[in-house]
Amino acid sequence: MKAAFFENRPRFKSKLSRTVAFLCATLALHYIFLESAGRQNWTSTQQIVDPVPLSVHLQAIDNSPRELSVIRARSSTAGESRKSATSKAGKARAKAKAIPTLTSKDVEQEFKFENPAPVHLPEVTTASNPDEFILRLPPSAEINMEVSYAKANESPTRGAANLVWNSTGSSYSLSLKVSVDVIVTTINLLQLNSEGSIGQFGLAPTKSEDTRRSRATTAIHFNHSDKTIVFSSSNKTVKMEDGAQDALSILMQLATIGNSDPKRLTPGKDLTIQVAEGRDASNFTFHVVAEEELPSQLSSNGGTLRALHLIRPPKPGSYNSTLEIWLAPERSWYPVQIRNTESSGTVTNQRVTAIRQIERLAQ
Description:
Blueprint: H1 2-39, H2 104-111, E1 141-150, E2 157-167, E3 171-182, E4 185-199, E5 202-212, E6 215-223, E7 228-231, E8 236-239, E9 245-246, H3 249-260, E10 270-277, E11 280-295, E12 304-312, E13 322-328, E14 334-341, E15 347-357
């Protein structure tokens, strides 16, 4: 039996060796598996992507459909896709895909753009009323004129006139005397007086008087408190408009406008002013004709003087005469010629021969 054992010993030894080798291999595999399992990162394969910063450039758009510049998004941390969930950290990130081209309609829907309402700028004036202006009165002066009066188809009668204008800055006075030379004597035909204050619209008459050789003196009263004009010759009362004048003050009111705001007397323009004379008041509409070279003794060489020609044509139902006035811008806008033409053809012409500025007189 012992001999049999030893005879079978090599076979037993061979089986034991194989068994030990199998056990060692199994242990080694378990060890390797456990080591790898301990080192494995079992966190989720999904990675957190930081918010993608956008670099946007906005441009003004109109309402017509058109393509806008492409707006692209750039990422500083991750791409938009990866090859697989098990890709190792450190692999190259995928390039960001371009945002498709947008139209103005898409942009308006996304950002809800609205066209701003139009801005209306208020109109601006230098005074509270367009008819107001910064007053620059002509200097006080005594004006001498030669007068001619001629009926249709008759020889003219000649005379002289003297106009005295005085202003203190807050008030004014005007007087006009017209006389005719007859053989060896002089006959006073007419005297007009006007007085009043200086207001925001220029001259503001308070009283006007008309004295003629053949009739009694008549007066016109301007009541600025209740804005009425009262006529003594007709016991009539009319409503007074802003800037209303009488038949004499209208001359210096035009001169004041020329000194204060010459643009209102540009050729081609019209100027309407209420004027009270005789028994009623009516609106005089002066049309600025043009600048003319007027023969005048006021010229330094006895030649011509530059003057602005204004004309007030007849107004049916109000007055039938044509009134023309020439103002001299180089002479403080004083009137240098006045002509009145009746519908009958009678013409009265007054031409200035001398202007003497005087000191303002206390009133």
